[in-house]
Write a structure and sequence with these properties.
single chain, about 525 residues, alpha/beta, Aldehyde Dehydrogenase, Chain A, domain 1, five-stranded parallel beta sheet, globular
């Protein structure tokens, strides 16, 4: 009998009523669990968090909040092996991909716990220097940052049930806001177990953590001006969220991370066989196959000099060919299935669109040769590599294919042309530049910066240290303009600004200095 995933709201576990949504093992198509949020009082859930979790957190100093994050990180790490197994079973992840998600989560929590120590024994932040506001030096102004008194609603995508939760919750809790987490249903088994562990540990004060499994129902209809919404998912859903009448009416602060056609650019002076060239091959292939290409930071478009395009075609195909696809529980398998039948259908439809403007140079959109998978079972697609002669074809730049699919585009022009082609993606999370040439790197950096949240500049000097563009590091900002949603997360202390209100104080210098120590 399939496990029933209950929601944790108002301080108790509640099982939803009515029709249940199934959670599958994407390798075998076996139903692992079911869940529903029908019957849950979403308004009461938010009020409970506001009345209990918010005041409890705001009383704590940054140091004390950081201690909570440290405890969360450590207890989740204790259950690492169990969580990895759930990630493999319900997410279709290889063990390596599961570790990437779970270790990313605990690492992010640990990073913000250390950062909290630097903020010290205070409950607010001082922003900038004191300013004299008139002729009299006793009349001054000072900006401060204080947490909102509401709830941070965190809606997460299916691809990173652990890391997606941690990158949002760590920052919100450190800022002083309780969280209501809404994981994607298809891969919610990992998130459910994590929440069980945290609730049973009683680390967090009452009302700081709530979680909803199943539909979000009318949750957003009860948000106020003191609440924050942070969403990761498709651009279509993001548009609906941004147009929600309560979000517009109450000016709810909203952060969105959506689609992104991330690019990799190989510089014109990079020779075949060089360390930079080899790094390019390794990282591009990894970004295609890690988590079966189901990453918001995965490389989708590859720009290479025409003079070396045939070499890239051969070498990158060989790199991908070495990746075994199949049952993700096996250690030799490096790519598993997509997470759902719907996801598989979407990727296959995207492959057919690309076939109208590009030629396949590896794969064909079929299942390929699979390791230890029953015939016809599982949501599998082999990696597909395209090559397009026209780098301006709109089908390549208009819509992200969220799977193991990439398009190589040869270029003959200068850096300005490469910038123009890349920016046809209309905003992205991250682009990668592979070059040892300072002048080329500089032109590309300042040409792409307005269109990207992050730029990964890879060269021979960092070849042995590069984590690749797909690694979202908590020190660096995560988000991007345009199609990427226009949001910003993480980035060290920068991430806290989403959950803090900047307020300008003006008055007596003596009085303000007594209040703001």
């Amino acid at each position: 009998m399939a496990e029933k995933l209950k929601s944790f709201v108002c301080g108790e576990w509640i099982e939803g009523k009515g029709s249940q949504s199934p959670l599958y093992n994407p390798t075998t198509e076996e139903i692992l669990a079911e869940t529903s949020s029908d019957g849950i009082n979403f308004k009461a859930c938010l009020e409970y968090a506001r009345q209990n979790g918010s005041p409890a957190l705001r009383k704590l100093t940054f140091t004390q909040r950081g201690e909570l994050l440290d405890k969360i990180s450590k207890i989740l790490h204790q259950y690492r092996e169990e969580l990895i197994e759930l990630s493999v079973a319900n997410g279709g992840n290889t063990r390596g991909d599961a570790k990437f998600d779970i270790d990313g989560a605990t690492g992010t929590l640990a990073y913000y716990s250390v950062l909290a120590k630097k903020l010290g024994e205070r409950t607010y932040l001082v922003d900038g220097e004191q300013e004299q506001l008139g002729r009299n030096p006793r009349f001054v102004g000072q900006h401060i940052l204080v947490p909102f008194t509401g709830v941070a609603v965190l809606i997460n995508a299916f691809n990173f049930p652990a890391w997606g939760f941690a990158e949002k919750a760590a920052v919100a809790v450190l800022a002083g806001m309780p969280v209501v987490v809404k994981p994607a249903t298809s891969t919610a088994l990992l998130a459910f177990r994590m929440m069980q562990i945290l609730v049973e540990s009683k680390i967090l004060p009452e009302g700081v953590l709530s979680v909803i499994f199943g539909s979000a129902g009318d949750l957003l209809g009860h948000l106020t001006c003191q609440d924050v919404l942070s969403f990761t998912g498709s651009s279509k859903t993001a548009i609906d969220l941004k147009n929600n009448k309560m979000i517009l009416k109450n000016s709810v602060r909203c952060n969105v991370e959506a689609d992104s056609l991330n690019a990799a650019i190989l510089g014109p002076n990079v020779g075949r066989g060089s360390k930079t060239y080899e790094l390019f091959l390794i990282e591009v292939a990894k970004e295609m196959t890690q988590k079966a290409g189901q990453k918001c930071t995965a490389i989708r478009r590859i720009f290479v000099p025409e003079s070396i395009a045939s070499d890239v075609k051969e070498d990158l195909s060989n790199e991908i060919r070495n990746v075994k696809v199949g049952n993700p529980s096996l250690r030799e398998v490096r790519m598993g299935p997509l997470v759902s039948k719907q996801q598989l259908n979407n990727v296959m439809a995207g492959v057919e669109r690309l076939k109208t403007c590009a030629k396949t140079i590896y794969g064909d959109g079929g299942r390929g040769q699979l390791v230890d998978v029953k015939e016809g079972r599982g949501y599998f697609i082999s990696p597909v590599l395209f090559m397009a002669d026209n780098p301006e074809s709109p089908q390549i730049h208009d819509e992200e294919i969220f799977g193991p699919v990439q398009t190589v585009m040869p270029y003959t022009g200068n850096a300005d042309d490469v910038v123009r082609f890349t920016n046809l993606g209309a905003g992205g999370l991250v682009s990668s530049i592979y070059t040892d040439d300072k002048e080329f790197a500089e032109q590309i950096i300042f040409g792409l910066a307005p269109f990207n949240g992050r730029l990964h500049v890879a060269s021979e000097k960092i070849a042995e240290h590069s984590p690749g563009s797909g690694a979202v590091l908590p020190q660096m900002m995560h988000g991007g303009p345009g199609k990427a949603g226009g949001g910003q997360e993480l980035g060290g202390l920068r991430g806290l600004s989403l959950y803090l209100q900047r307020t300008a104080l003006q008055g007596s210098k003596t009085l303000l200095e007594k209040i703001i120590s």
